[in-house]
Every structure is written in C-alpha cells, then in structure tokens.
Amino acid sequence: MRQEFNFTLPGLGKPKSSRPDRIAEAVTQELAMLLRQEAGDVRLQRVSFSRAQVSPDLKLAKIWFTVPEEANAAAALKALQHASGFFRSHLAKTLNLRRTPDLLFYHDRQSEEAERLERIFRELRSHDEQTSAEDSGERG
Predict the structure, then answer these.
(1) CA-CA distance, 110 to 11, in Å (whole number)?
(2) Same domain, residue pair 36 and 95
(3) What is the mean pLDDT of residues 72-91?
(4) Number of structural domains the chain divides into
(5) The domain containing residue 128 runs over which residues?
(6) Cβ of 82: how many Cβ atoms within 10 Å?
(7) Do 96 and 66 fall within a single domain?
(8) Are 29 and 62 members of one domain?
(9) What is the strand order of the sheet 60-66 is part of?
(10) What are the pLDDT digits (tens) for 89-134?
(11) Rounded alpha-carbon distances, angstroms, from residue 7 to 4, 12, 65
(12) Is residue 94 within 8 Å of residue 34, measured between CB atoms?
C-alpha cells in the first residue's frame, strides 16, 4: 500500500479573495435599490434580498430573496428570473466590472424555517409547563 505525502503546509497557498464578497454586497445593494425605485411588477413589490454569493471567477451570482408569508414566492421567483436581463444591464452600467455575473435567484427559506422551529419550541415549552403543572397537582 502506497501512502501519498501531502506537500501543502497549513497557512500557505493562495489566500481566499475578498473581492467576490465585496461584489456580492454591491450586487445586493444595487438590486435592492433598483427594486425600490423601478419595480413595476406587482410580484416584486414585497421582495427583499437577504444575501448573495459570487463565484470566485466572478461569472455567477447567487442571490437569495425573501417575501412575506402571504406573498407568493413562486411568482416572485418567476418575476425575478424574467427581469434578470434588466438587472444585469443595470449592474453592468453601475458596477465597474470587466464581466457582469449571471444572476441566479433562490427563495431564502431560512427565516421561515427559523419561525417554524420557534413555533415548535414554544409548543414544547407549553406542553412541558402543562405536564409539570399536572404532576404538581397530583402530588399536592
């Protein structure tokens, strides 16, 4: 059995660039401003962007959005995808980039999941309080 030796040392190598993070932040801010000022589509009026991630080669931007519970996330996603060309052209004009990244939109369910878990925890606490009250009532 032949064992491979790892020649890389910790701390050496190319450091992770912060440029994709800076571009992701700029893309998020520009898109949020564009939605506030120019959103003509009713489906986009309640959309807000929660985060963005740009690939290291700066060719792709993944953007997560949230909508209020009563709003239709699927309709908002369809509207964002339909407007992605408009968004890209705006980003090309405002951001000084050699190449404007392609935009992919995702519905951010993180806050919905957090709410769902919080609801479950409240129900468990309520159930525990009822159980302990019943137990103390039986002993008294």
Answers:
(1) 33
(2) yes
(3) 92
(4) 2
(5) 109-140
(6) 12
(7) yes
(8) yes
(9) 48-54, 60-66, 102-107
(10) 999 999 888 899 999 999 988 877 778 888 899 998 888 888 877 7
(11) 9, 10, 42
(12) no
Cβ contacts of 71 within 8 Å, gap of 6 or more: 46, 47
Cα(134)–Cα(120) distance, integer angstroms: 21
The answer on 102 and 67 residing in a single domain is yes
Does residue 114 share a domain with residue 104?
Answer: no
Angle at 28 between CA 60 and CA 107, to 5 degrees: 75
The C-alpha angle with vertex 58 and arms to 63 and 77, in degrees rounded to 5, equals 20
Q: CA-CA distance, 117 to 110, in Å (whole number)?
A: 11
pLDDT, residue 105, reads: 95
Which domain CATH number covers 76?
A: 3.30.300.20
Residues, the chain, total?
140
CB 100 within 8 A of CB 88: yes
Transcribe 44-92 into DSSP letters: GTT-EEEEEEE-TTSSEEEEEEE--TTS-HHHHHHHHHHTHHHHHHHHH
Q: Which of 31, 111, 106 is nearest to 68 (CA)?
A: 111
